[in-house]
């Protein structure tokens, strides 16, 4: 028989091994319920607590002209604060405190600072920037309220342009910069890219965490235990099929697991919203979309998804390679430890400073792909990224080679 | 390679971590025979079988199975040889029938033909009623039967059976022996068997190779084994003598080996 005709039955077998009730519970139900109970339900309690946003506006009155030549005195900073206060009046959970200095605003857990040239810059230059500090999680109700407050500032600018009949000059979203005071960025990415970095790192880490626990499900451990691995070795003409089939099934299973994870979070968020009677716009799903996946078909969305996909393949290959080389018991512990260990170290490194160039971050393969992807989005892909990408590709090829070699050699049978 | 031999090895050696497991084994297994590969525990039987089926690569020496140089073209021989390993392998969550049909589909056996043979063999072995039972729910003996049936259906010319009747009750073991006998007699298949169960060997083996500490100390017909190790006695005694007591210089076997070649 042809070598290639063996692949489909092997794939079918691996799909059946994973898609049974027992493993589906582990892959889909557990992440869903984990997010629903552990993350979602506490959101109910957190959601019940208020968020206080401290705002300071240094904006000054500025004379601007209507398109028909009539002069007006505007202070968009003050208007924005009024607009946010109106939002707070309609919500029992949002409190707005106008503070006396930039420092007080930005040193508080959740604060916004509107600079002195806000109106003039907005109207005359069609660009503006504010600074903020947010400790509320983007996926929490408080985080969503904070985002709404930021939106009100944008709405104020748009409203001013409409009032002045200057629709054609309304600044785009990109021209109104919201700057979290993350400190001086150590990376040369734009602020916009840095804003994407944290949610991207978060999504990447969640994915690694979910895959890290799937070693036994997608690896060869169980087959070794059942004795079927040796049988498969005796009848499979091309042993790469064994690895490839597991990899494909693993990607499908991981994707399902990730979707279940986000679904659990989204449903819990939606439930929170409905229970607390908040605005219809507030939902768990909206919280998830605070991640940079809102526009999947955009250049950024596609690149980010590719980054997540490549990382998923790498994490699974790592599990499978360890699983192939070592005995079942060692593999189950070591594979998960390696994947989770690198995942945690990666997230720890970039969570506090998305643009970090610390050595302990640079030796982490997940950082290589993280950095390369963000540089690609930033259109600042340079030689260092080329090195990271090359290292990552070499790592992937190396893992496939090691897994295949381990199958070819006797270690897999005698370990 | 001699065209009348289905397996031939020349000076086969295998080492693990500098420990030599096989020390120059030269096997000659005729087509249409039931060849018993014998030896005490740790003699190197399983390693030999794994090399013959392309799972392991020999450290040195030559291996030909069905005319294929296994060292160079192990891929070609995979899926051609039916092999039953010591462990009754199977997917616990799959039904009995799925455990059989999965492997037959991978080796390219037509589903209809595989189903017909599966029904036939399971009927003969009183297990047709277990067709829809999950493999994990079967007893040890029943698992062995499923593995055996799968191996037989998946095989083309050569079947390698490592302890085929282990865990089977006496009645079922006898039925398995009948099936093996029929496979050789009616279908012209060759069986390489490794077993410690003397009743199997007594009833089935036509030829034998005896391994001791990684060396092939004897190869010949069943009658040759008896004549060499226990003249006038039975096969079981001869095997025990071969394992433990009787030291036979290898060159002493040469006339017998010549005899086999002449017979071929």
Write up what this structure looks like.
The complex is a heterodimer of chains A (415) and B (264). Chain A has 18 helices and seven strands. Chain A has a five-stranded mixed beta sheet with strand order 4-1-5-6-7. Chain A has two domains: 267 residues, no CATH class; 131 residues, abc type-2 transporter like fold (3-Layer(aba) Sandwich), CATH 3.40.1710. With 415 residues, chain A is of the alpha/beta class. Chain A starts with 6 loop residues before the first helix and ends with a helix. Chain B has a domain of 170 residues: Rossmann fold (3-Layer(aba) Sandwich). About 2% of the residues of chain B have low confidence. The chains are: A alpha/beta (415), B alpha/beta (264). At the A-B interface, helix 1 and helix 10 of A face helix 3 of B.
Summarize the structure.
The complex is a heterodimer of chains A (415) and B (264). By secondary structure, chain A is an alpha/beta fold. Chain A is 66% helix and 9% strand.
Describe the structure using short key phrases.
heterodimer, A: 415 residues, alpha/beta, abc type-2 transporter like fold, five-stranded mixed beta sheet, two-stranded antiparallel ribbon, 18 helices, 9% strand, elongated, disordered C terminus, B: 264 residues, Rossmann fold, five-stranded antiparallel beta sheet, 10 helices, 11 strands, 23% strand
């Amino acid at each position: 028989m042809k070598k290639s005709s063996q692949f489909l039955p092997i794939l079918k077998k691996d799909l059946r091994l994973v898609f049974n009730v027992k493993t589906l519970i582990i892959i889909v139900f557990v992440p869903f319920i984990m997010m629903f109970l552990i993350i979602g339900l506490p959101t109910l309690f957190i959601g019940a607590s208020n968020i206080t946003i401290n705002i300071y506006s240094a904006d000054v009155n500025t004379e601007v002209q209507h398109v028909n030549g009539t002069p007006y005195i505007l202070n968009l900073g003050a208007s924005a604060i009024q607009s946010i206060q109106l939002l707070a009046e309609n919500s029992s959970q949002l409190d707005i405190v106008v503070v006396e200095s930039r420092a007080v605003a930005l040193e508080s857990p959740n604060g916004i600072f509107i600079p002195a040239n806000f109106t003039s810059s907005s109207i005359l230059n069609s660009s503006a920037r504010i600074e903020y500090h947010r400790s509320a999680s983007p996926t929490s109700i408080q985080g969503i309220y904070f985002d709404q407050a930021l939106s009100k500032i944008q709405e104020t600018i748009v409203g001013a342009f409409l009032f002045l009949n200057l629709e054609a000059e309304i600044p785009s979203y990109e021209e109104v910069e919201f700057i979290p005071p993350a400190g001086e960025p150590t990376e040369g990415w734009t602020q916009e890219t840095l804003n994407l970095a944290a949610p991207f790192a978060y999504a990447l880490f969640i994915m690694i965490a979910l895959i890290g626990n799937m070693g036994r499900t997608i690896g060869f451990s169980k087959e070794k235990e059942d004795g079927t691995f040796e049988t498969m070795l005796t009848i499979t003409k091309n042993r790469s099929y064994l690895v490839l089939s597991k990899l494909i099934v693993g990607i499908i299973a991981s994707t399902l697991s990730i979707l279940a994870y986000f679904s659990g979070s989204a449903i819990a968020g939606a439930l929170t919203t409905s229970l607390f009677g908040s605005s219809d716009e507030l939902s768990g799903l909206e919280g998830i979309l605070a991640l940079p996946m809102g526009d999947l078909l955009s250049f950024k969305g596609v690149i980010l998804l590719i980054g997540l996909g490549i990382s998923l393949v790498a994490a699974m290959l790592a599990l499978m390679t360890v699983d192939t080389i070592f005995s079942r018991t060692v593999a189950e512990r070591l594979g998960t430890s390696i994947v989770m260990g690198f995942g945690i170290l990666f997230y720890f490194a970039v969570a506090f400073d998305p643009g970090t160039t610390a050595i302990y971050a640079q030796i982490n393969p997940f950082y290589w792909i993280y950095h390369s992807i963000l540089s690609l989005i930033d259109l600042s892909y340079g030689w260092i990224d080329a090195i990271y990408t090359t290292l990552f590709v070499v790592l992937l090829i190396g893992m496939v080679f090691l897994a295949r070699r381990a199958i070819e050699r006797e270690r897999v049978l005698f370990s | 390679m001699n065209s009348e031999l289905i397996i031939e090895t020349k000076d086969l050696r295998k080492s693990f971590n500098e420990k030599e497991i096989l020390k120059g084994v030269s096997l000659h297994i005729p087509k249409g025979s039931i060849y018993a590969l014998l030896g005490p525990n740790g003699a190197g039987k399983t390693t030999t079988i794994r090399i013959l089926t392309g799972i392991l690569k020999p450290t040195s020496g030559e291996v030909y199975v069905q005319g294929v140089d296994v060292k160079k073209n192990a891929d070609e021989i995979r899926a051609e040889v039916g092999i039953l390993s010591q462990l009754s392998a199977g997917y616990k969550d799959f039904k009995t029938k799925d455990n059989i049909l999965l492997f037959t589909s991978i080796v390219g056996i037509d589903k209809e033909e595989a189903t017909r043979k599966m029904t036939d063999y399971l009927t003969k072995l009183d297990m047709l009623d277990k067709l829809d039972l999950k493999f994990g729910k079967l007893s040890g003996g029943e698992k062995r039967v499923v593995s055996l049936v799968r191996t037989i259906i998946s095989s083309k010319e050569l079947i390698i059976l490592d302890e085929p009747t282990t865990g089977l009750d006496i009645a079922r073991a006898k039925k398995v022996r009948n099936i093996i006998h029929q496979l050789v007699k009616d279908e012209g298949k060759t069986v390489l068997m490794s077993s410690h169960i003397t009743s199997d060997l007594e009833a089935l083996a036509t030829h034998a190779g005896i391994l001791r500490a990684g060396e092939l100390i004897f190869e010949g017909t069943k009658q040759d084994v008896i004549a060499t190790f226990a003249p006038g006695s039975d096969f079981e005694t001869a095997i025990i003598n071969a394992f433990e007591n009787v030291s036979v210089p290898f060159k002493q076997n040469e006339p017998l080996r010549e005899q086999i070649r002449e017979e071929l």
